Amino acid sequence: MAVPGYRVAASSGAGAADGGVRRRRLLVPIASRYLGGAELHTAALARHLGERGFAVLCALDRDACAPELVERFVLPGLVFGEAAVAWDPDLPAAANHRRQREAVADLLRGYPVDGVLLPVSWPRHATGLLECLAHARVPTLVVFHQAPEEPNLEPAERAVVDLSVHRPVAVSEDLAERVRALYGLPRGAVLVVPNGVPAPEPLTGEERRCLRRRVRRAFGMPPEASLVLTVARFAESKGYDDLVRVAARLVPEDPDLHFLCIGDGPMRSAVVARLREQGLVRQVHCPGSFRDVSPYYRAADVFFLPTRREGHSLSLTEAAAFGLPLVTTTVSGQDRLLTGTGAAILVPPGAVADMSAALGRLLRDRGLAADMGRRAAAWASGACVREMHARYAWLMDLTLAGQSHRVDLNHR
Fold first, then answer.
1. Are 44 and 178 members of one domain?
2. Which of 120, 253, 297, 366 is deepest in the core (most CB within 10 A)?
3. Residues 121 and 266 in one domain
4. In a domain? residue 77
């Protein structure tokens, strides 16, 4: 159908009637400005729901968003809309709330929907969206990807999560507890749907060796260079300052050691400037984002995520699926996910000496790294993307039908 101000990404009839039955319309507003795990998760889920018969409208603020974020939501079969829903860090909170409320109200007038899928990468950044949707009484599946350790919202901000309209979901058990505490919700009110990832396509040994050499050659590395991979948004919470400190410790000891940091975000230029100041730009590479990250997972020796705050890292799970040993932090949630798996060396956030020692140990002891990589792949095999998508589709159906929010995800 024609929607004023919006366009269909492909001529598949998104939003049209199929066989005389109108498809259920679903709005997916994106409050983010950069591409990260939450946004990749949402894009894949929107595509899946489109395949399940929903008419999906993905709404972003094109002028405010990084191009690689926008292109992830221009998908065949989906409607793509431009709206001022992105949180602007340069505006006061009240101005952001007002912009978001007005943008969603305009969307709903131009494209009446049956329900909403709302990803929340940080609670305060979606408050205006939640408030408008609650006021309009639009059934909303709210997917929390991150929340603070301590409740710090104003009472009015907590009140916008109305369980009679919104169904809150979190991507980990620990995050569910944080969301529950943040909004003063009763126990069991926040459902948990863990992140899932696709199983990697198998490669022969020779194919993998060729790919490793090709990736190293592309970045000017020696053919047998040790490669530490990080895939994360360039944001303060991901610990890039600690990554630079770790590189400054390890690189002088091993001239053939290289770091590859894939992602984009507000801190990228500052991180590159620090690397340049410290003479590390030849061995710590920050090329931006790539649509397909799989070659870099396959080419790396260790995955390193020095995060200071996390829900359930998608890139960490992807790295494990590719058989990479993990070095990451004991921030809330990751202890519960990884302790006892044998897949990771966990260190306190900000503990640069411990991070350096863990990476050095794995790079020196390839037998230990290989064993941890096998354990990581076994752990990640339980994170099935098909099961994750099926749970979300089922919850979306229940949300639109107005059924009870207290459901058992194990009995569908």
1. yes
2. 120
3. no
4. yes
Distance CA 412, CA 225 (A): 48
Task: Answer yes or no: is 411 within a domain.
Answer: no
Domain interval for residue 102: 6-196+385-401
At residue 331's C-alpha, the angle toward residues 330 and 336, to 5°, is 70
**164 in any annotated domain:** yes
**Distance of alpha carbon 232 from alpha carbon 352, whole angstroms:** 18
**CB-based contacts of 285: which residues, under 8 Å, 6+ apart?**
219, 258, 259, 260, 261
**By the 8 A CB rule, do 75 and 4 touch?**
no
8-39 confidence digits (pLDDT tens): 344 334 444 445 567 899 999 999 999 999 99
Indicate if the pLDDT at residue 2 is higher than 50. no
- pLDDT tens profile 116-125: 999 999 998 9
C-alpha–C-alpha distance, residues 73 and 377, integer Å: 29
Task: Specify the number of domains making up the chain.
Answer: 2
Give the angle 212-352-222 at the CA atoms, nearest 5°.
25
Looking up tokens 């400037």 gives: 273
* Contact in structure between 236 and 309 (CB atoms under 8 Å): no
Distance CA 328, CA 338 (A): 10
Give yes or no: residues 241 and 190 share one domain.
no
